Amino acid sequence: MSASPSVETVTPAADKAKLAAVGVLVVAAIAAFYLLASQPLWQRVIALLLLLAGAVALFFRAEPGKRLVGFGRDAARELRKVVWPSRKEATQMTLYVFAFVVVMALFLWLTDKTLEWVFYDLILGWRR
């Protein structure tokens, strides 16, 4: 038997640097928000949002961001292929599920009461 080859993901140094810069920008955004405490709130929020927007933009230029966008496109493409049930079909299936739940509830209740009767009344002789 041959062992399955191990798969190693190689990330170029540029992508690693971009991801590190994304982390630095996120930390800088949070730090800027708190360090600008003497400024009006709207300025603090704008600084936070600008730095976070820069982090998001840089993330999407790195390979993991490009893969995430590709995954989103593939998911949207697959979602368009889904055949959704009509209102009538959805209502029928919902009613089937409710009916099944009621039948199972009755079955489990009857089973519970039967076992209670067998154990407590017949075997142990405890009359309530």
UniProtKB/TrEMBL annotation:
TM segment ranges: 19-36, 42-60, 93-111
Subcellular location: Membrane
UniProt keyword Transcription regulation present: no
InterPro entries: SecE_bac, SecE_sf, Translocase_SecE/Sec61-g
GO MF annotations in UniProt: protein transmembrane transporter activity
GO biological process: intracellular protein transmembrane transport; protein secretion; protein targeting; protein transport by the Sec complex
Annotated Gene Ontology cellular component terms: plasma membrane
UniProtKB keywords: Cell membrane, Membrane, Protein transport, Translocation, Transmembrane, Transmembrane helix, Transport
Function of the molecule: Essential subunit of the Sec protein translocation channel SecYEG. Clamps together the 2 halves of SecY. May contact the channel plug during translocation.
Subunit note: Component of the Sec protein translocase complex. Heterotrimer consisting of SecY, SecE and SecG subunits. The heterotrimers can form oligomers, although 1 heterotrimer is thought to be able to translocate proteins. Interacts with the ribosome. Interacts with SecDF, and other proteins may be involved. Interacts with SecA.
Family matches, as HAMAP family: SecE
Protein family membership: Belongs to the SecE/SEC61-gamma family.
Name of the protein this chain belongs to: Protein translocase subunit SecE
Organism: Aquariibacter albus
Gene name as annotated: secE
